[in-house]
């Protein structure tokens, strides 16, 4: 049985949070980007955040124990780690839980014996997206814990996790990515009050075919060429000298920004968004026929085959 007294009471997902999760799954399916599952991006960063938070919790617990007056030594110290798998919204995550010698440490973010942790996705992504204040990040973590946790502990966990996040955000990248995907997810951000903000995610496909999340930025929704050039320049400064193709939807100023940073790259509008845009000019009753027909065009093995299928599509519809 889990320790109910100390267990984290996570709120039920809101309609926006459900929509947010659906967006993640949709992008993963559309682009082939492994965001979820044991090897997905979210599982990896969830593990990092949980382990950093657990370490910060234990440090706070050890500080509370103080010093043994008889020996002059700390009354309680670290005593290794224990492996544990927790089920999350993004799949199973294997974590290392720190232990203390006395055995009095009771984690709050992952309670003893707990095997499931829900409602953590938005807090995780808020940590990785540049453009949020420390206060906004702390607010997300406070929601994940509960009102009973002290501000000091939230601050300590935030500081610990931010160090890990900054290292991830500044890590060197490959020189070339044949394909780069850029998309926006919508999530709730606390700015005095809760408001929806886009989080822009850039995913690169390496020369070895590996997928890597290159960066994340919290935007305002009104980004133009200047802001996009700044985001892409940051990636170039971290080592990305060129990209062969950049796929995105019709984000304002994106083509101009790509031409400035990677002049030889081709800007390809996201196929999913092109299909959606095409459907706006059709009757819903025809979608069951139109969508498979469009798929035959953009999945054609050659240009000639695509042109032939397009002609057949035009003749039918």
Automatic annotation (TrEMBL):
InterPro entries, alphabetically? Transposase_mutator (IPR001207)
Q: Which domain of life is it from?
A: Bacteria
Q: Which residues cross the membrane?
A: none
Which Pfam families does the annotation name? Transposase_mut
Keyword hit for Ubl conjugation: no
Return one GO MF term: DNA binding
One Gene Ontology biological process = DNA transposition
Q: Tell me which UniProt keywords the record has, alphabetically.
A: DNA recombination, DNA-binding, Transposable element, Transposition
Please report which protein family the annotation says this sequence is part of.
Answer: Belongs to the transposase mutator family.
* Chain's role: Required for the transposition of the insertion element.
Please report the name of this protein according to its UniProt entry: Mutator family transposase
